[in-house]
Fold this protein.
Amino acid sequence: MLKAIFQKKWVIITFIITFITLLFSIFNTFSVFALTLKEAKKIALENNYELKAVKAALETSNWDVKKSIWSVLPSATASGSYSYYTPSIPSTFLLQNKRNSISASITVTQPIYNGGKGIIGIKTSKESATMSRYNLQMQILNTIYQTEEKYMAVLENKRLLDISIKDLELSKENLSSAEIKFSSGTVSKAELLNFQSQVSSKEVSYIQAKNRYELAILDLANFLSLNPNNLGEIEDLDLATIKLYKKIIEKADIKELETIVKKAVDIGLKNNPTILIAESNVKIQNLSLAVAKQAFLPSINLSFTNSWDKDNTDNNYSYQGIITLSGSVPLFPIINNYDNLKKNQEMLNQSKNSYEATKNNIILSIKNSLYNFIAAARSIDSSQKSLSYIEESYRQTKVRFDQNLISSSDLLNAEILLNNARIQYTDSLYNFMRNKSVCMNVLGITDENKFFSIFNIKDE
């Protein structure tokens, strides 16, 4: 009976363990999801630690603005004291000695004139907050750019892995044909060894391509703070995007290129955070120079104080109100203020020169990235045509080899050309996407519709 009970319990335990294992398996299955580029960018913007740090810095800047506004408002302080005298203080006119005293006061101070430092301080803090927003915009753009770059690296390496698999299979097929020909005496031992060498080389290339693909997935998952095991299929380029390639090729001719570049430069100078930060820096240096000039001017403050006093000999508090208008003029060492003024003048000149240099660099980067983008778009069409030609040429070469009309070297050379053409076409596709990301990053925009509007492209 005990044995039967034990067996029954063991069956129940086994069932529970199996059920839990099944639940974990189902959970892991559903936790694996297909990732799109849009979802990847959303996850990156939510999880990026550098972006979170910049957001925190922006919050700090916003509090600095509030602090600068409060600094021009009246300030108030309250104070009080209680004193106990040992021994007590004798009084000539009163019957009792003074043993303790209580005093309290409230003081309100309002700056009347301080050379405009308060207003300038508010403007400076607001401009600093604006600069923090530009820094946040820059970090968002960089995060999106890195996400697109790593996402495209996964897609490109996946396609290169597929090409490597096809290339290896093709080499094995050609090796099989060569072995048959070797048996019949139409292929020499040296030619057969050459085919075998090609297969071995392609096997190594396959392993390398597989490693690069897995590392690209790991790199993307780490950047998104995700478990790489939970990443399913990465969505590839869609046909709508390919259509846009063709439209760009049709629109971006030499006659319209100057207009396209001008539109891009106008957008970039309005949206690129680097140039906007440089512009804000000039404004801040102008404000700092204004503060340095105000250091030579007097300052005036108005204060009002109410005080109450009482000791043990009094029944009521004595009251006194004081209104004070105070002013001060800087005298010595005046050289410090002058040095500070000259320093701020030089810093303003430096910021202006830096702004002009940044502006020129941004314009150059916009033009360079746009030219590369247009060239990359056009290379898609040419590499696709080249691939079609080489594929057809390879098929003809293979037929002629099977008919013993050409040597094995001709077939192997055609095989290499075919593999290179496939790689070149793949590179042209993703090089286009990389150049698009670079263009949008330099222009300071995240909306693809706004970017493609530069080329006057509309959805059909």
